Amino acid sequence: MRDFRVAIAQVHAELRNKEKNIEKIEKSAEEAKELGAQLLIFPELFLTGYNIRNDLFRLAEAIDGEFVERLLKVAEKEDMHIIFGMPEREGEKIFNSAVLLSPDGGRFTYRKLMFPNFGPFEEGLYFTPGNELPVFDTELGKIGIEICYDLFYPEITKTYAGKGAEIIVNISGSPSISRALFEKVLLARAIENTSYVLYSNNIGTQIGLVFWGGSRIVSPRGEIIAAGDAYEEGMVVADLKKEDLRLARQYRPTFRDTRSEILKKMYEAWEK
What we know:
Blueprint: E1 4-10, H1 18-34, E2 39-41, H2 56-59, H3 66-78, E3 81-90, E4 93-101, E5 107-111, E6 135-137, E7 142-147, H4 154-162, E8 167-172, H5 179-193, E9 196-201, E10 203-206, E11 209-212, E12 216-218, E13 224-227, E14 234-240, H6 242-251, H7 260-271
Parallel strand pairs: 1-2, 2-3, 7-8, 8-9
Antiparallel strand pairs: 1-14, 3-4, 4-5, 6-7, 9-12, 10-11, 12-13
Helix pairs in contact: 1-3
């Protein structure tokens, strides 16, 4: 990776209103550009809002759909990488996806692996789970993307680290009832893999779910570099430094000391 500045837009998504949410992305991109950011991140399903249930079938679009095309132009105009969440359609399937757009016209997608299907969550009713863990080799660095509940499965982040990821981005729809858990686990994932962890969470109320925000940027040593206020809109900005990553991996070498044979034993235990 190289040194660069990241911005996380902690902005309320308008339910079922892609037009309004694109306007929010455009405005945030202009602000992030003025702040010198080269990467701008939005939360899970930001393009449509998180809790839209059956409207997912109407509002989902392909990775080359109209609204993605418009956002690609925003990335090109502001010379910025943009990550955001959306319902992605492929044939008859709908995925809970994170889209990465690059200023040179690149578009990439990650499809959520793990769905919460307990309490107020119903993702398994609507989405098809993904089955790939792509690491995106960008001019900023190697990025692995997760979505919300994926964070609670350390094997996902460890796989990204093993594939060379230096930066883990988690876009989230975490409600208040999950706040304490996310605050703990985010730090653990950074320390376990000596990777930067960038967390973008929804904010506001969406049909009974109250999202707490708290977006944050965590160093490879598990230190919170910058964080958004709970329940408040804002922009979280920090500089990521290649040297800090190198030093973290030198003095707390959890990445270097990971043993593949132990990971294999874990796999075998869960296959039984």
